[in-house]
Amino acid sequence: MAIQEIKENTTLKIELDGGTVDGKQKIKSKTFNKVKVTAENQELFKTATALANLQSKDLLKVKRIEEVVLKEE
């Protein structure tokens, strides 16, 4: 039996430098929902860097988070 993968939801998450506290890196994150599941990685990265430029903290990471439904065919 083959398993079908259906992309249901995509979220964009940017992680920002929150400074150092007690010798540990603090991370501040911002999450953006309702991203098109068909969005290309390059476009998501460009959008994330544009959003990060509006922040006062430096960008550390860009994450694409996907919810996928697995279904038997």
Structure description:
The chain has 73 residues and is α+β, with helices and mostly antiparallel strands. It has one domain (3-72). 18% of the residues lie in helices and 62% in strands. It has one helix and three strands; from the N terminus they run E-E-H-E. The protein has one helix at 41-53; strands at 3-21, 24-35, 59-72. Strand 1 (3-21) and strand 2 form a beta hairpin. The relative contact order is 0.40. Residues 2-71 form the DUF1659 domain. InterPro entries: DUF1659. It comes from Tissierella simiarum. This is DUF1659 domain-containing protein.
Throw out a few tags for this protein.
single chain; 73 residues; alpha+beta; elongated
Strand content: over 45%
Shape estimate: elongated
Strand order of the largest sheet: 2-1-3
Cα-based radius of gyration, to the nearest Å: 16 Å
How many strands, which pairing sense, and closed or not: the largest β-sheet? 3 strands, antiparallel
Q: Let me know the number of strands.
A: 3
Helix fraction bin: 10-25%
What is the domain total for the residues? 1
Discrete helix count = 1
Low-confidence region ranges: none
The computed structural class is alpha+beta
Question: What series of H and E elements makes up the topology?
Answer: EEHE
Determine the N-to-C terminus distance. 7 Å
Mean pLDDT: 95
